[in-house]
Amino acid sequence: MSKDTSPAAPTPAPDGMKALHAKFLEWLAERNYSAKTVKVRLLCVGYFITWAEQRGLSKPGEVTKPVVERYQRYLFNLRKENGDPLSTRTQISRLAAVQAWFKWLAKKNYIPFNPAGDLDMPRQEHRLPRAVLTEREVELVIAQPDVNDPLRLRDRAVLETLYSTGMRRMELIGLKTYDLDAERGTVLIRQGKGKKDRMVPIGDRALSWVSRYLREVRPKLLIGDGGRDVLFLTHFGEAFHPEYLTRLVAEYVSAAQVGKKGSCHIFRHSCATLMLEGGADVRFIQAMLGHAKLDTTMVYTQVSIRMLKQVHAATHPAKLNRKPDEEAEDGGNGTSGQVQ
């Protein structure tokens, strides 16, 4: 047999960017950072390393503050395949990962100083949720599954749970049968965003649909021990894949023809907004949604427009104007009923 004489891949220099990037990721995992955080820093720091190597920089010690600022300008001018620029959120995410890496390098004495420590980050955009369903629209979406079909009955239970609890997609996927406490009307969300557990209430209606699913459908979906404790199972007897759940919920939103697009997160937005309009204190909404900062929850006070409309209608001087058709009957002079 002939031996493979192809050259072996070069081993990364121990003080090179790639080797130290790998050590950084290992350190994150050892410190129990979430898999999502590790993945983001794998990709975002990797983007920077590729950019730097293309410019002849192979070691972190060769990177200065002007180099990092040059990378920031590069991200600002970078265009995606469709010609659109990177969003401010994406730019911040990539730069924050680079900052975290260089901070770690300096702390571990791989470099004498952190070249990204004083970087002026782009201002974060504060955007409102793209779509929020009204109570009527939520009911239209939830009514879409044909509950005479076992899998559609499961889907109804999923939609009811998302709406009642406002939980995130991955939190629903991670639910176990023992996390549901029907007697107390609560759900335990284990290791949510930030690897934090929290207990949230679940309404009687959602509980009744989940109970029916557990009784009539879930036993038929169990296949072996793969999904033994998973609450919501697919027809393969396993937990949902995130993208599959997203497509499933989005199809029901589209089928309801409410003129809005969205998936799992639209129920989270709608739950918070409708509860605020119903009089819930924003701090209770914060606890329910699992927000670390109140500022994150306060965005829903801007989305909750109904109360603002009531105040506007009661206090704005234009409310004294008569309707256009009334003015037309009065000869169109437009003066009657106005403040003089």
Automatic annotation (TrEMBL):
Keyword field: Chromosome partition, DNA integration, DNA recombination, DNA-binding
Biased composition (Gly residues): 331-340
Range of residues in the leader sequence: none
Region (Disordered): 316-340
GO biological process terms, semicolon-separated: chromosome segregation; DNA integration; DNA recombination
Domain Core-binding (CB): 15-106
UniProt KW DNA repair keyword: no
Pfam families: Phage_integrase
Domain Tyr recombinase: 127-313
Keyword Coiled coil: no
Top-level division of the source organism's lineage: Bacteria
InterPro entries the record matches: CB, DNA_brk_join_enz, Integrase-like_cat_sf, Integrase_catalytic, Integrase_recombinase_N, Tyrosine_recombinase_XerCD
GO molecular function, one term: DNA binding
Official protein name in the record: Tyrosine recombinase
Source organism: Frigoriglobus tundricola
Classification of source organism: Bacteria, Pseudomonadati, Planctomycetota, Planctomycetia, Gemmatales
